[in-house]
Each structure stands twice: as structure tokens, then as C-alpha cells.
Queue: 2 jobs
Job 1
Amino acid sequence: MNPNTPLSSAPANTSGPSFKQLPLSPALLATLQQLEYHAMTPIQAASLPITLAGHDLIAQAKTGSGKTAAFALALLSKINPRFFAVQAMVLCPTRELADQVTQEIRRLARFADNIKIISLCGGTTMKPQMNSLEHGAHIVVGTPGRILDHLQRETLKLDALNTLVLDEADRMLDMGFYDDIAYIAKQCPLERQTLMFSATYPEGISRLAKHFLHNPHEVKLLEKHESGKIRQRFYEVHNEDRLQAVGLLLKHYRPVSTLAFCNTKQQCRDLLEVLRAQGFHALTLNGDLEQRERDQVLIQFANRSCSVLVATDVAARGLDIAQLEAVINVDVTPDPEIHTHRIGRTGRAEEAGWALSLCSASEMRRVDNITKETGITAEWQELATLPIEDNSPLVPPMVTLQILGGRKEKIRPGDVLGALTGEAGFTREQVGKITVTDQSTYVAVTRNIAREAIRKLSAGKVKGKTVKVRALED
Ligand code: ADP
Ligand code: MG
């Protein structure tokens, strides 16, 4: 597999129904065409006729199924760009999800370049957000805490709001946002459309729906993985060998990117330690990380400079990371739905993927439940007989370079690509994903040129300025 393939997890969708059958403006249809959204994904096909008709909606579909565009098209079709007031608001559980949603809405809103979309999340100062709000925004996307803060300071006014979206509602409830959401919803006009998206249906969801949605239609797309795309295997382990077994699987399968799920945060920490001691490039996502550290972890994993990301279900939910060759269930989850959700991360797009589960004797009943609920036959293999054909260390193909200076310095991806392929003399194929954040720019380069790239970038200029560059390595 080419390590430089840009990461895009666009669902393969040349076969679904066309967007043209929806009452969308010709300009919006042209944008969809430009974005190569040639057909609707199943959740879009199921929900857009309902939302465009103005109904409230509760929708459930797996990660990566195109939920963002499903609500974005509904809210964009109601925005009046000449009216300078917040007309739509999307609540998301975390800043990175809010950023992903903001970007997707911006892409879809290209047809009308005077629609202003701002993101309001914690972790940055209030002042610039207040300024942007003062200049008028049509759509705000943010986390409940920060939105609440703006409402209490009266820097955000919602009296013209006509669409409220709760994205990843289950995750927001997991994070204890029920009361904040309730407060925010009460500040919105009663006469509005409310759309709620959720991957699972915990109890709090119906409570939210009962209080804040009006006769909602429900759309539930249960996961059907195309069998054959995800190859599942189960391995019996004793608990004391479990963490070592992850290393064995990695050495046998040699996947470029693996998401390893643990049931607890402690297990994540322990596994990280074991993997690192064995020389794997592994990182973990957990709630204790600062925002900037979380960003860096996700960037390194998404651009293929980290082999293994260790996470709990909560930490990994909703992230749009694709092209995973493998998912390892370090612990078997008691909930078959969560199992299906976990393994759905691999085998996306056209690539096949491995879903490998480690299972102790006391977890056998969980596997039985999974096979019963999902209708698969578990394929068991012996860890002891797994051949290790290649014993060289598993090394990620890319290295992430961090350039100090980002959006604030007006650096754009093209500036960095230009610096590397211009004077520095590297080829386009040696440069991977480029991500610009407020303060920093991250660029993936092939491992063999990393040192040279740092030297040349530091000696040369990006956007006419000298820059500080370092490699992010664990
Ligand atoms: P979800 O919120 O369900 O996890 P996203 O909205 O993040 O999924 O969408 C996943 C990816 O699919 C994104 O990269 C998005 O740009 C792409 N996508 C969404 N709808 C379509 C479509 N109709 N055709 C092609 N790609 C799409
Ligand atoms: Mg989403």
C-alpha cells in the first residue's frame, strides 16, 4: 500500500441515490458535484427527505457514514446569507469533532461564499470568538461548555436560530453535558427544527428527545458490514499474556495503522507502556491530554507516522480516521453493538481490514453474544502457532514534522508543500498529509527524508520567513 495515499474516508458511494432528487438549490448541487459527492450515503438518503421537509429527526448511524453532510445540507438550505444573525447551531462533544464539522460545512457552503461559519470551543481565549460573533455569523459550531459561556455573557444570541443540531449526542451525554445541552436548548426559539445524531441509543437520548424534539421522525441504520471486507479472528489468551499478545499480532500482521481498543483507561496506559518497551510507535488518546497534545496524537496517527493508537471507546468515538489495516480488541467488550462499531473502523472504503480480538476464558460468553447478535461464526486461531515471518521492527512509513507557526501566521498547506518540493528539492510523493492548526503546521514526510527535510526547512523559508522545525517522535 502506498503510504502517501491521502487519508480520506469518503464512503464508496457511486451506487446510492442521487442528490438531484432532493429539493436542493442548483448551486448546492453543483458544489456536491465538485466535491465528488456523486450519490447519497444511506443515512443521507434516509434522513434528507425528512429534514428538508422541516421535521425534527433522531438519527442513528455508524461513524464515517456521512452524518455531517446529512445535517449540514438541511441547515444550509435554510440559511439566508443576507440576514446577519445566527440561524443554525451545531453542538459537538469535543473540539476536534467541532473542527471536523466546521470544515465539512465550510466545504459544502462554498456555493455561497458569504455564509459565515464559526467554531466556538474551549481551549482558546474568548476574545477572538467574541469579535467574530460581533461581526456576524450565520452558523456556529461548538462544544456545550463554551456555547453556554457565550450565552451567559450574552455574546451569542439565538433568537433568530431556526436549526439546532446535536451531533454525537450519546458522546455528549457520556461526557456529562446533559444539563448544559438542556440549558442551551431552552435559550433557542421554540419554533425551530432540532436534529439529533447519535451512534448508540443510551437512556439519556430518549430523555433529550422527549424534552427538546418535536414529534421527531426516527432513522436507524443498523450496521451491515460488507462481509469479506472485514476479516475477524479471535485468539484465546490468559489475562497475564494479553498485553504481550498485542505485540505478537502486530508482528504477524504488520498493519501500517492499528486502532487498539481497551475497556479501561488503565489498560490503555499499561498497553502503551508494553508496546513502547517492545519498540512499537504507539500513542494513546485519553481525557487527561491537553487539547494540543490530543491534536498531535490524532495528526500523527492519521498521517501514518504512528503505528498503533490505543484508546477506549469513548476516546475514539466519532473520529474520522480511516484506512486502518487493523482493529485489535485488546479486551472483548460486553456490548455486541460496541464490538460492531469498533471493528467497523477497519475495512473501510475499498480496502480490506483485520479485526482481531483477544479473549480470555471469562470473556467467552461475550464472544458468544457477539456471534449470536451479528450472525458471524467466530474464527479461532492459536496465538502460539502464528508465524512471525518478518522480525524487523514495525516502523511507520512517515514522520511528522512540526513547524512552529500556523493559521495565525497565515501559513497554508501549499506554502509548506512549496517549500519542500521547491528549493528543498523533495518530490510530491515524499510529502504526506499537511495539517495547519492555529499555532503549528504539521507535515508528514517519508521516514527516510525526515532529517534532511528538517535541515532544509530550518535553513530555508516558509512563506518568506525562517521557521523552527522539529520531528514529533514518541
Ligand atoms: P460521520 O459523521 O457519520 O462519522 P462524516 O460526516 O464525518 O461521517 O463523513 C465521513 C466522510 O465521508 C467525510 O470525509 C465526508 O467528506 C465523506 N462524505 C460524506 N458524504 C459523502 C457523499 N455523499 N459522497 C462522498 N463522500 C461523502
Ligand atoms: Mg460525525
Job 2
Amino acid sequence: MSRVYNFNPGPSTLPLEVLEEVKAEFIDFKGSGMSIIESSHRGKEFDAVLQETKALVKKLGGFGEDYSVLFLGGGASLQFAMIPMNLLKPGESADFINTGTWATNAIKQAKIVAAAKVAASTESEDFTRLPRQDELVLDPKAVYLHFVSNNTIRGTQFHTFPAAGKVPYVCDMSSDMFWAPFDPAPFGLIFAGAQKNLGPAGVTLVIIRKDMLDRCRDDLPAMLKFKTHADKDSCYNTPPVFPIYVMNKVLHWLEKNGGLASMRETNMKKGTLLYSTIDGSGGYFRGTVKDPESRSFMNVTIRMGSEDLEKKFIADAAAAGFKGLKGHRSVGGIRVSMYNAMPLAGIEKLVAFMKEFQKKNG
Ligand code: PMP
């Protein structure tokens, strides 16, 4: 077996133990004589998986009884429309912090269905940093403040969440969900496409607080209402059975490996090592995010002297077993995506490769 170090931004690397467990019980799930993907979503086998996955999300994140955990289809992108549709009534509006593609998309979709105000944007600086608190123009009457905790394409991450008074957060945590512990109290709604830190593509985790659920509109098609999915325990229609099952395994892995505090410790080590290598390269590798406070510990975006050199780096790295390092097609360059499942050893080996590459080609 030859597994590479997989730096894909999502779908992305999953813990090998998880893949092995899935493989081992794929044909006959816990003596049921069938695979979990052949079982009824209303049967006892899958129901146990669903309930346990919900409980694990709550336990790991410290979400109390006032939060509902939902597993929805449509990707994180559906949430860009579904959230404002549900939460905003005529005359109401939400604030948005524009920090890149996924925030921009969320703003565009929200404007189709409701009123969206941009509280701050760093677009004029090519999203190379996050807005500072003193730059936020917040509406105290906003129903919620939407922001993206980690900007997968631009390599920025909020390390201190914006202060928004009593206005609840709606947060897109698609690319850093459970990367580290956080206080859930200010969050009215969190959503995350699973395909980075949580499992395979196909399910979106939505965690919604009761007061937000209560204010959701009723005059919407059933599939687009959070209430439908909360009332029916994510089984109004057939839920994405397989991704939920794999997420269950990933969350068990997370718990077994020390939970969010331990994830943070390893993620900080990985990020510190990679950023110090970049900063110590004398400009050979350049981090695109100038403000150290804004740097992401999930997606590290790098430029080199020329596009040809970047191409050579990506190709040589792939040949050496480091795959998926190409930057997003909209920005180019190099991107090192190192979610929870990427071990510290992966980054240690990558930085050794980077130093060697610089010596040979610098
Ligand atoms: N938000 C963020 C932060 C993302 O990184 C992505 C995908 N890379 C999305 C939203 C869109 O996710 P999906 O493809 O699941 O709709």
C-alpha cells in the first residue's frame, strides 16, 4: 500500500484508521448482513449511527440542549440561500463580513432573497488580511452577522471572532470546523460542508440554536425549511447516509485523539513549523497573507518567484509523494491544506522537501 501525503483542499485527507474501519465493516455492518449503505435510513442500525453522530458533535463542541444538529444535502453552498430565506423576514437584514470567495457568494445569494449589508470587506486588498474590529460597521438591529471563520482559498482565519454585541453569529466553518476548541455561546448557527475536517463530500453539518430555529419562516417549501429537518431529525427525506456514517467515524477518531484541545495543539505545531519555514526562506517562498494575525492554520497560501517555478515545485512535490498543493484556480500559487487528519509528520516532511527544493533550485 502506498498512501501519499494528501494536501487537497476538500475533499481531502481522512484519518487512515477511519478508512480502514469503513473498509472492515463495509460489506457486513455490525453483523447486520448488509452494508450500512444498503440499510434503511429508518432502520435501527442507521438510526443508532445518526443519534451517536449528533451526540458526538454536541459533546466535542460543547453544544448544549438548546442546539439542534442537522445533516443536510446541497453542500455548504445551499446554506448561502437557505439561511437568509429562513432567518430574514421582510424589512429585516443581516450583516456580512466579506473575506473572499465564499463570503462573496453568501452575500450574493442572500441579496437574492433578503437584505444583506456588508459590514466590512478587504476585497480592495485582494483579501490578503481579515478586517480589523475597528473597521466593522455593524448594525445593532441585524438579525445575524455572517462570517467565514476560515477562508479556504485566501488562507486567512479568524483567531479572534468579531465582537458583535448581542447580534448572533452565523458562521461558515466549512474549512476549520473542530480544528480547535471555541465557545459556542455567540453562535446562532454554524454550518460546514463535511469534505474538509469532518468526512466525505455529500453532507453539510448545520448546528442551529433554538431561538434561531424558532424565528425561522414557515412559508417556505418543506425541503428548504430548517424546521422540517429539525422536526424530522434530518430524516424528512433520505439523508446522506454514507457521509454521515463516515463523519461518525471521524468524530470518534477526534475524540480518541484527545478532542479539540489536542487538535489545536497539533494544528498549531503544524502551522508554526510551516510558517517559520516560509518566513525563514529569505523570500524564496512568500506567504500571501501579510498580517500574521490573519494567517490560517488550515490552508497556507504561498507564492514563489515565478509561475514556472511554482509549477515545477508542485510537480516535483507530487513526484515525491506530496499531492494536492496547487493553489485555487482563481488565485494560483501553492496552497498547503492541512486539516485535522494531516499528521505533524506530513508537515515535517514537506518542509524538509521545501528546503531541499530551495537548495537545488534557489
Ligand atoms: N465555504 C467554504 C469556506 C468553503 O471552503 C467551501 C468549499 N470549498 C464552500 C463554502 C462551498 O462548499 P460546497 O462545495 O460544499 O458547497
